[in-house]
Amino acid sequence: MSALDVTDLTVRFGRGAGALVAVDGVNLRVESGGVLGLVGESGSGKSTIARVVAGLRRPSAGTVTVDGRDVTGRRLPARERARLIQMIFQDPYSSLNPRMTVGETIEEALAAREEQDAAARRAGARELLDLVRLKATVAQAYPRQLSGGMRQRVAIARCLAVKPKVIVADEITSALDASVQGSVLNLLRDLRAELGLSMLFISHNLAVVRYLADRIAVMHHGRIVEEGPSDEIVHAPRHEYTATLVGAVPSLDNAGTDVLTRDEP
Amino acid sequence: MTARARLFRAPMTIASLVLVCLFGILAVVAPILWGEEALTARPTELLQGPSAEHLLGTDNLGRDLLLRTLVATRLSLGLAVLATLLAAVAGVLVGGLPAVLGGRVQRTFGAVINTWLAFPVLLLAMLVAILLGAGTTTAVLALVLTMTPSFARLAQTLASRVGGSEYLAAARMLGVSRRRQFTRYVLPNIAEPVIVNVTISIGGGLLALSSLSFLGVGVQPPDYDWGRLLKDGFAQVYNSPTAVIGPAVAVVLAGVAFGALGESLAGHLRGQDHGHTGGRRGPAPGPGPGSGPDGGQPSTPDTLLEVDGLSVAFPGEHGWVRPVRDVSLTIRAGEIVGVAGESGSGKSVTMMAIAQLSAPGAEVAARTLRFGDEDLTLLRGRALRGALTGVGVVFQDSLTALNPAMRVGAQLAEVPRTQRGVARRQANRDAVAALDAVAIPDPARRAGQFPHELSGGMRQRALIAMSQIGRPSLIIADEPTTALDVTVARRVMRLLRRECDRTGAAVLVSSHDIAVLGELCQRVLVMYAGRVVEDVPVDALRDPARLAHPYTRALVAALPDLDSDRDAPLATIPGEPPDPADPAPGCGFAARCALATDRCRAEVPELTGHRHGGRVACWHPQDREVVRS
Ligand SMILES: Nc1ncnc2c1ncn2[C@@H]1O[C@H](COP(=O)(O)OP(=O)(O)O)[C@@H](O)[C@H]1O
Ligand code: SF4
Ligand SMILES: [Mg+2]
């Protein structure tokens, strides 16, 4: 069974002849409990897809369904859409309200779950902080008092609070240090096992995507050029562009060699 | 809190705050104390000049003018505050609400505000006066109508920033109601500048209301405000010139007090935004006890850059903070050296100190800072600038590193023009050639474009071109690829490497991704908590068993690659890096190091030569067993 279905999605910016086709007839499917990775260089249309799926943008054509329900239409009430889909953003510095404490931010999300009792919400927030491996005392902190990695954990907790059917994660580790990235990836991997999350995981780094995703879709100039099981995509790419992406992943195995200057003009 | 404490120590703030408070107290008590007396007519003392009894004289009914001025404080200030607050509320609603109501509403309201702003103020006031007749309500209403659009514009600018923010997008996705989006997300994030603006505007509003009363459109007798008093005083100005002094001084003083208070609050907010640090707190500590002049690498004849005992300190909230301590490194001509480490480890501060581009207020100290034949610690002014033409700098954020208002080509041409006095034509040709050299397609057209018209990768290339155009022998590149995706980053690195092979320039380049540096560099310096902890030839990175420092090993292990085991967690480094304002004794990594001993926690390990051909600062280097076997 699929959790998320994107069908013939097209997004145009501008009108007429000068219009830019950012997403061009894209089909994607996230299995229930599965993680689909979406890779491609910046400008290829990944974030546009994420925003449409999350309901922050309307598509020019095509449909997005979660659990069989169309989430692109205007008729879906906001609270219901909230429980179908949530998004985690790239920059944890700008995705948290600087004027709300961590506790308030998470409780806000619990309220979206129709949790009306304030005491229950506070307890819920504490549980969620624990789930993302943060101390309960973090609830009183403001975002500026936390490190980048901690903020991203808060953003993940906010998303989990709603228990959405599908999570869209857009470049959530690319603003983080290499060493912090590892702990966020570990967290998502554990949460996936614990909670059976269904996720669309977007990154420009194939090594990062491969670590979490069962299947990978490769995007280039608004189109999906290849889709398949992660290890096949990485170790036996069929499309030329996929091979370029594989070659672009910096690797310690290349340290001290001239691989960098050897390939490509 | 200390920032707030600092604000209230500024003389200007104190003076204006005291004045505003005095006016506030007057507005409350004056009518109670002297309200009756100010109305008492004295038929025997009409139009008197100043006397001991009536310090500012009396008016044409024999009323005391000083008392009338004091009592008028309440009405004058009250109306100004009322009008400003009404305008602020209306402005924030008109300008701020569209942020949560969506694009179309935003555009409509924007057009409304623009038209409104363009409407002549005086005409508006006249219109209101004609429609409603002269009176207090008219004056206040006219003022509200004229002040609202500027508040709306301010609120609109601030709110559109919040409206485009991801935290508001996240709230929308949670299904948070529009009203709550406005009160909980938009308002708190625009409040401070609006409050500052209200304070400033009260001063202006006071002047405007007084003018209206003075013209006879505002407050009507028997009520009186300062403007009305001025009007009545002016009528008698030939008989008793002192009559205008009281209200005139009051209006000016109150106007200036509110304006000044607002301005100093605004200045404080701006300072906060820029991470302003306060004044100096005593002398900066010199470079700490370190490895001494002989602790670094021996300098060979082809040494291009030699740094020893480099420390950088900044004034902090509680004394000096030293994020870079006792750094020593050498770079040979043509060598590409990387600087790795997590953010806050001191990479940027180190590199900017070497390029003599430290932030204002920083204290840079070094035992040796030698570039080519020049000792940079001894040079000043022109001689220093001359020596530094041999250094090219590439910044991380290509958008802020380029002047947004200047065409790319013109910015590149600046370098040869100012450094070598090259004529403009030739400099422009050089600029286009430099853009061509970094493989920017259609370089002549790109040279005529502004920075924002180029993509991130292309801007970063333009920056590299700019760093090359002065023909430097050393390029300092601070995280040149961090903001880019892997594909573009790779192109930029390849370019950097090729340019150096071509020109023979040496490079000092930083990144938080050690794998990136491994492919680009010959040697990598690993920084932790402001110190170089390992200086390692890159071929050792291929075989992690050869790495000596536990932190370098952790950095390497944390990176996922295309063969990482998906069923096992990635290696991570527990804990957080230490706060540079609160350094612990001993090895900076001890709190997070599984191998830490008492010695680690007490003594700082020196950076000394190591068997892998580099240097290590660790009491228990980890490559021992491997080498023995
Ligand atoms: N202008 C400054 N004033 C005060 N502290 C600063 C300034 N610039 C950098 N720092 C501090 O110096 C430390 C090292 O910063 P930085 O060199 O930017 O690290 P990196 O480049 O490795 O990320 C940080 O704690 C940072 O807050
Ligand atoms: S000196 Fe001690 S604490 Fe520091 S890295 Fe080496 S073993 Fe770890
Ligand atoms: Mg930096």
From TrEMBL, chain B:
User: Which positions fall inside the ABC transporter domain?
Assistant: 305-554
Protein's name according to its UniProt entry? Oligopeptide/dipeptide ABC transporter ATP-binding protein
Cite the InterPro entries for this sequence: AAA+_ATPase, ABC_Ni/Peptide_Import, ABC_transporter-like_ATP-bd, MetI-like, MetI-like_sf, Oligopep_ABC_C, P-loop_NTPase
Q: Which PANTHER family match?
A: DIPEPTIDE TRANSPORT ATP-BINDING PROTEIN DPPD (PTHR43297:SF2), OLIGOPEPTIDE TRANSPORT ATP-BINDING PROTEIN APPD (PTHR43297)
Q: What is its main location?
A: membrane
- SMART domains this protein is in? AAA
The protein's GO terms of the molecular function aspect are:
ATP binding; ATP hydrolysis activity
GO BP terms in the entry: peptide transport; transmembrane transport
Intracellular or extracellular location(s)? Cell membrane; Membrane
Where do the ABC transmembrane type-1 domain residues begin and end? 73-262
Alphabetic keyword roster: ATP-binding, Cell membrane, Membrane, Nucleotide-binding, Transmembrane, Transmembrane helix, Transport
Region feature (Disordered): 269-303
The protein's topology relative to the membrane is: Multi-pass membrane protein; Peripheral membrane protein
Spell out where the chain crosses the membrane. 12-34, 75-101, 113-134, 194-217, 237-261
Native organism is: Actinophytocola xinjiangensis
- So which residues are the signal peptide here? none
Give a single Pfam family match: oligo_HPY
Per the record, the similarity remark reads:
Belongs to the ABC transporter superfamily. Belongs to the binding-protein-dependent transport system permease family.
The entry's cellular-component GO terms read: plasma membrane
